[in-house]
Amino acid sequence: MPRVLIVEDNDSERDALSRRLVRQGFEISVASDGAGAIERARMESPDIILMDCSLPDIDGWEAARRLKADPGTQSIPIIALTSQGVPDESERALDAGCNDVDTKPLDIPRLIGKIHRALGLPDRTRSLPPRGDG
Question: What Pfam families does this protein map onto (predicted)?
């Protein structure tokens, strides 16, 4: 069961995403800020990190840079979660070392497809229900 670290400061968004990913067979851990993300990634070695970029204190871009600079966490794929329509967020995320970017509001089948590709898993997104936290 792939382990996903969700880094999101919005409780309702984090909970909804967690529920959807658990239903798809992922094991979840969470952090609400960049410092927590770095700590959890070092302790838990998740298979992948979903990183909101707009976080308090240490933002997602800086957290990604630190994780990619650390030999113990640099190989963990990071998918940045950015705000739709905000210029340069995607480019900043890739420059910070993120492997991929997805925009909010999240399209869950698309995001799960990106997770599967990053982990080298078969893409099962065709079998997912429509978007929502349902």
Answer: Response_reg
In this prediction, residue 134 has a pLDDT band, given cuts at 50, 70 and 90, of very low
Do 20 and 65 contact (CB within 8 A), yes or no? no
SS3 for the chain, per residue?
CCEEEEECCCHHHHHHHHHHHHHCCCEEEEECCHHHHHHHHHHHCCCEEEEECCCCCCCHHHHHHHHHHCCCCCCCCEEEEEECCCCCHHHHHHHCCCCEEEEECCCHHHHHHHHHHHHCCCCCHHHCCCCCCC
63-114 per-position pLDDT tens digit: 999 999 999 999 999 999 998 767 788 888 999 999 999 999 999 999 999 9
